[in-house]
Design goal:
292 residues; 3 helices; mainly beta; seven-stranded antiparallel beta sheet
Length: 292
């Protein structure tokens, strides 16, 4: 086994709003090195760092919009989000929950602050990932995985060092709760100060970390602060994360999908012609119906 080394530490860019309910720092895709191809199968990562939303009787969020060709994964750390889509999926996700929506051939959905959270206000912290689909699955039927916190199995680290919550893939002998179309690993690593977390993925898997809370060191030397993103090189398999203080780290590693990417707005396909077809199908109402 060879050590995987650090390629870049990326500071959060200036935040922007998605709708009026999500104040996000965009990490993927962005300027090099975090392009869609470099991070495949993870083609978007928006991070709503902790932000206080005051009480409101108006539900903040994003209205009805389409997707085709990929999956959206929403990971809740603080606050509560409600979701509905045109395939009948929907529900509420709160702290520790995950919503995994496969848009595939086409879906309409909307996401907004859950009603009680909106009325009381509070800290809001979320990640939304877009996970690409291979060409053979892009036009498959939409589906929805509502993954509650209690359904996510955790690996208990030695000496009360913390827990690795396995959303997808596997850590040690613990299997992830989500089903995926291509091989990937997605963890929330809750680490006590001083804990060293060993990690190992195939060298060709694109691998990165988002420091959600606390501060960490990679391979015992490179410090990565809160709200920063660490990209690992594809030069080895094994590396370690040390918690400088109590920390929460989102770990992403996946086998790249070696296919062309044609992306525009809410559609991610393989060719410009497929993008044009997606726009036509949406205009013709082929993504279903969903009220505002």
């Amino acid at each position: 086994m060879t050590q995987r080394t650090l390629e870049a530490i990326i500071a959060p860019r200036a935040p922007h709003y998605v709708g009026d309910g999500f104040r996000v720092h965009n990490f993927i895709p962005s300027t090099q090195p975090l392009s869609m191809r470099r991070m495949s199968p993870f083609i978007l990562l928006d991070y709503n760092a902790p932000f206080y939303f005051p009480p409101s009787d108006q539900l903040r969020g994003v209205g009805v919009h389409p997707h085709r060709g990929f999956e959206t994964v929403t990971i809740a750390y603080k606050g509560r989000v409600a979701h509905r889509d045109s395939s009948g999926g929907g529900g509420i996700i709160g702290e520790g929950d995950v919503q995994w929506m496969t848009a595939a051939s086409g879906i309409l959905h909307k996401e907004y602050h859950e009603e009680n959270f909106s009325k009381t206000g509070g800290l809001f912290q979320m990640v939304q990932l877009w996970v690409n689909l291979p060409a053979r699955y892009k036009m498959s039927a939409p589906k929805y995985q509502a993954i509650a916190q209690h359904q996510i199995n955790g690996y208990q680290l030695p000496n009360n060092g913390g827990t690795v919550a396995v959303i997808a893939g596997q850590y040690a002998d613990v299997q992830g709760a989500a089903t995926t179309f291509t091989p990937m690993h997605l963890y929330n690593a809750h680490l006590k100060a001083g804990t060293v977390l060993p990690l190992s993925f195939p060298s060709h898997y694109n691998t990165a970390l988002l420091v959600v809370a606390g501060n960490i060191r990679i391979n015992g030397s490179e410090n990565v602060p809160t709200n920063h993103f660490a990209l690992l090189r594809n030069d080895g398999e094994d590396f370690s994360v040390t918690a400088n203080d109590d920390a929460l780290v989102l770990v992403l590693s996946g086998e790249p999908i070696d296919e062309p990417i044609a992306a525009q707005g809410p559609f991610v396909m393989n060719t410009p012609e497929e993008l044009a077809q997606a726009r036509r199908d949406f205009a013709m109402g082929k993504f279903g119906q969903l009220d505002d």
